[in-house]
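User: Batch of two.

Assistant: Item 1 of 2:
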Amino acid sequence: MKTTTETQKQEAPKGPPKGPLADITVLELGVLIAGPFCGQLLGDFGAEVIKIEEPRTGDPMRNWGQVRPDGHSVHWATISRNKKSVGLNLRTEEGQQILKDLVRQADVVLENFKPGTMEKWGLGYDVLSKINPGIIMTRVSGYGQTGPYASKAGYASVGEAMGGIRYVIGEPDRLPSRAGISLGDSLAGTFATLGTLTALHHRHATGRGQVVDASIFESVFAMMESLIPEYQFAGHVRERTGSYLPGVAPSNIYTCRDGMIIIAANQDAIFGRLAEAMDQPELVSNERYASHVARGTNQAELDAIINAWTGALTAAEVQAKCDAQSVACSPIYRAPEILEDEHFKAREAIISRLHPKLGEFMMQNTFPKLSETPGDVTSMAPKLGEHTEEVLKAKLGKSAKDIHLLRSAKII
C-alpha cells in the first residue's frame, strides 16, 4: 500500500515543460513507432509536441501491443508521453489550412507517411517553407524521400532486412532471427532526432530551415560497422554466428547451475584476470590462448573450458568471482531482473507516474542524462483530441464558435 506522499511523488510535474527544448514546438504528424519515437525523445527534453491525429480513429498505436489492460495500450502510453493530441483531418482543405496556420508558429514538422503523401495534401516542404522559412521538416520513411524505392511500402522489418542486420542475427543453421523489439523503427526515430537537433543548430546560426530525411534502412545500415570494407578488401561476408562474434574470444553466453551469464574478456589483460578468477592462470601462458588472435582461432575450445567452469557454479558465484577480478560479466536480464537491479534503481533508469486509468505506470526514464538540463516526463499520453480546443485557441485564436463549426464539419 502506497502512502499519500509516495503517490504524490509519482504524479507528473505540473505546469509547462522546463527542459532544454522548451522553446521548440513540434507538430508530429506520424503514426505507429518510427516518427513518434522521435517525437517522444524531443518531448522528453521539453519540446512542445503537438500530435496531429485523424480525429475519429487516431494513431493506430493507441490499440497496438500485446498488453492492453482494460483496453489501454501500454506501448502507446510510453511512446506518447509528453505530447498533446489535436484531432485534425488533413484530407480536407480546411484541415490542411489549419496545419499551415500552425506551421507559422512551429519549429519542426515531423512526419512518417509514405513519401509523396504530404505533397498530395499540399503540405510538402516547398509549401511549408514559404509559410515559415525556418521550419524544419523531419521525414521518416522506409527507404527515404529519393531513389527508386522511395515510393515502396517500408516497415521496420524490411528496413532491417535491407540494412543488413537481419541476415547476421540468429543461429547459422536457421533462418535469420529478429530482435524482440521494433529495432529499425527505434533506430530511425533516434537518427531522426539527431538530424532534427542538428538542423535546429544550423537554423540558430543561419535562420534557415531544411529537410531531415531519415530512412529506416539507412538507420540500420549506419550501425553495421565495417560490413562494406570487409567485403571490399577481402570478399568477406558476415554470417550468422549465434551468441558470439567470430575471432572475438572469450565473449559469449555461458551456462551456470541456475541460469546463463555473459562474460566479455577478449582483451589480453582482461583475459588474464578471467584466468585468475577461474583459478586457471596457466591459460594465459598457453600459446593457444595467449593472444587475441590465438583465442579467436581456438574460440570453441576456449568457450568449452569456460563453460565447464561456469557450469559448476551459480550465476551469482560467477558474477562475484568476475567482479573481484574486474572482468565484465552480467546475467541476461528480463523485465523482472531489471526491476530488481540496484543499479537501475540508483541510476533512476525507471520512473513511476500515475496513469489516469491504470494507476501506477512504470517505464523507462528519459535518456541520455544531462547534468544541467535533464529531461522529464511531465504528462502521460493524451486522450484522442484532448488538446484540440486548447491548441486552436492558444495558437490560432479560434473562438468557441469556430471550434464548434469545425467539429460539426468533421475537420477536427
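Item 2 of 2:
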Amino acid sequence: MKPLQLSTCLALFLAAIAGPCFAADKVSFGTDWRAQAEHGGFYQAVAAGIYAKHGLDVTLRQGGPQINHAQLLAAGRLDFAMAPNSFIPLNFVAQNIPMVAVAALFQKDPAVLIAHPGVGNDTLASLKARKIMIGPDTRIGFWRFLKTRYNFTDDQIAPYTFNIAPFLADKLSVQQGYLSSEPFQIERIGIKPNVFLLADSGYTSYAAIITTSRKLTQTNPDLVQRFVDASIEGWVAYLYGDPKLADARIKADNPEMTDELLSYGREKLRSYGIVDSGDSKSKGIGVMTDARWKDFFDVMATDGLYKKEMDYKQAYTLSFVGKGVGRDKARP
C-alpha cells in the first residue's frame, strides 16, 4: 500500500472509532412560554454554538398556554425545564416529586404591577387602596407576598383578562404584568405607566430557573454542569454581545415577536438587573443562595402555602452555580 493510501486509511479508521466518543449529548429543554427576549440567552447558546462547544446538542421546546413543561419534566419527557418562579421547585418538594432547581438565570422575577401616573398610584404601598386586576395563577403566586408583606387583601382582586383595554379605560385601575410585555404595549399607546417591579420591593422569588431530575444531578453531574455553564455563557452573550442570532431564532419560533419588542425586552433585562445583579455580581450569573430560598419559603409558609416543617432545601442544589461563570465577560 502506498504511504498516502495508508495515511488516508488510518485517518478514516481513527475517525470511525473516535466519532462516537465525541458525539454531542442530546438534551431537551422546555421554556416557560412562547419564545421571547426572556429566553434570549438560551436561544443565543443554541444559535452561537455555545451549547455545541460544551458538547451538547440542545433542542429548545417552547412553552405555551396548553403546555405544562413541569409535568413533562417529571414524566421524563424533558431533560431540563425552565421554571418561571421559585414556587415550582418548592411545589415539587411538597408533592414528593424528585425534581430540583440547579440554576436561576434571573436574579429578579420580572413580575410587575402597573398603574396610571398622576392619580396617586406612585408607590407600591399606595396600591393597597386600589382594585388590582390579577389572574388565577397570580392569586396563588406573588399575591401571597403582597398580602404577607404589604397587607393587601383579597377584596382588592379584580379579574384580569390578559388584555390591557380595561386598564386603559379606567385611570384608577391597576393590573399585573411582565416587565417587558404589558408596559411596552401601554407605552406604544402614549401612556408612560408607573411600573412596580416586585423584586425591588422584597419579593425574593428567582425566575428563569433551570430544573431537572434529582437523578440526573446524581448520575450525570457533568452533563448538568455543562448545560448550566453553557446557558450562563449564552446569557452573557445575549445581554452584552450581539443578540441577532438569538433574535432571529426567537422570531422563527414565535412570529409575533418583533425587533422592537425584543430590543425593548433586552434593554429592560439589563437596566433592571434581572439577570445580573445582587449575588451574581460576585458569584456569577445563575447563582442561588440558601438565604434567598429560605426567605421566600418563610414568607410562603407564613401565608400557609407550605407546611413550616417542609424541608425546602430539597427544592434546589447549589452544586452547579456560584463558580463565577460569565463573570469575566459580564459588565457591572
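The longest strand covers residues 99-106.
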